[in-house]
Amino acid sequence: MTNMVNLRQVIAGILMAIPFIIYFDIPSYNKVYPTLGGLPYFYWYQTLWLAISTILFSIAAFLLAKR
Amino acid sequence: MLGLYGIITFVVLFIIFAVLGFYGAYWRRGNLDLLHEWGLAGRKLGTILVWFLMGADLYTAYTFIAVPSGLFAKGSLYFFAVPYVSLTFAIALLTMPRLWVVSRNKGYVTAADFVKDRFNSKILAALVALTGVVAELPYIALQIVGMKAVLEMMLLGIGNIALVSEISLIIAFIILAAFTFTSGLRGAALTGVFKDILIWITVISIITIVPLQYGGFSHAFSEMATKQMAIYSKLAEPLIPAYWSLFLGSALALYLYPHAINGSLSADDKNKLMYGTALLPIYGIGLAIIALFGILIYAVPNALNIVKLTHNGALVVPALIVTTMPDWAAGIMLLGIFVGGLVPAAIMAIASANLLVRNVIKEIKTDLTFKGETDLAKWISAIIKFIALAFVFLVPETYAINLQLLGGIIIAQTLPAVFLGLYTDWFNPWALTAGWATGIISGVYMFVTFGLPRATSVYPTPFGLLYVAVISLAFNLIVSTIGTLIARGLGYKTKSNISAEELKG
């Protein structure tokens, strides 16, 4: 049972770490093209990751929640 | 300026806001003579209310005014607000549920309550409390700066803007202080839902209507000169260290602010707090869109002219609203931003009052009763609001802005005691105190010598421009660690008054 809990925590930790890796890799998104509706990649990519962060954090919260 | 229908809509909605605030006292009724009932809404908020309250608390009028005006004035660097509002909630998920559990088990109302027991140090606790209050005051003042921008746009063109807007602010603050006094955090939670709904209406309407009627970002970029295009289209290479250190430092600091901790502790249970927190980056999408209004304004010549003629970057969003929306809709949206200042101001004042009463005054005057401490907190929260108001009226706005930058730097120095304390009692309280002092002194020094004259919170280092909060926090951690190693070498161990079960339960 203890191993189960630890596995959940490890997965939750990885999910929460992903946005850190994405946002710290600034050169990967510091560019203009491809644009979205005229908006440079720099802006829409980071905004899109807010939506993805919400999903990742929600799964992490679900894994960490005590039932 | 805003037409008659707009003004009427604004006033009617403000009355609804005030009624909701007073109704809070009767909602999920509790004994409002107790500090956790008044100041934490009885710890009864579920997932959705936590989301709304924290959304109202963290995405404030100042954010909605300052981020777009920063983006408008300085370019893409100000988009650091977006990674910041993703990462800060990961940090919150790692810290706030633990703090919630131990606070429920031990009856804590503030982070300083926790620090006091964890490290067995009243002095460290009082320093954490005072740091929180000092960092919070300019934040409240800035909400007023944001609200003033709304009023200035509404009243543009009439003779005596300054007087009318000051009277309006005083009336708004008297009403706010009155319902905070009677309803406490319950009033803030109810009005927070109201505010969030209005803000979402604003964001969605503008981002749909402006591109349809005026052309979208392609049009905005085509209206710019080449030089402007360069600062907006992406991040300049030398600003990369500033960008990541700003979003990292801000993300670390947010949940050390008393209002963020206060909001988290008002949750009804640990799981609901986690779900509410995990969903908060959604609100950041609204912030990202509003930030982009700083670029979108180039597509709307009338709005751009207002900002240029008044030389006031704070008017980016209010000007866009008034020039692109019918009067009645503009009234709804401007009120959304206006109460977007009042709700967080109320929560910030409540949280500061809790800290002052619990961790400073009660340490000196130990015979304070439960009712006595609550009454005192109610009065202090009212007084704090009017100090902030007087501050904005009496000194230039740039002072409040600079003090808020400094506030972010100093609040970060409570991280080792609060966040690391949630995971370990390894640190020695005196080493943490020395680390805190090192962080504060180095942070203030770097800010005063470099940041203040340039209205910035970064500092030049061999690694490029870095956010001062991150640099001084690094010094703080080094001193805290070395100090603890020495203390432990000499045989001093921390006597924590919190058991492992009380942190997990």
UniProtKB/TrEMBL annotation, chain A:
Pfam families found in the cross-reference section: DUF3311
Keywords: Membrane, Transmembrane, Transmembrane helix
Stretches that traverse the bilayer: 7-24, 44-65
Origin: domain of life: Archaea
KW Membrane (keyword) present: yes
Keyword Membrane on entry: yes
The protein's name in its UniProt record: DUF3311 domain-containing protein
Organism name: Saccharolobus caldissimus
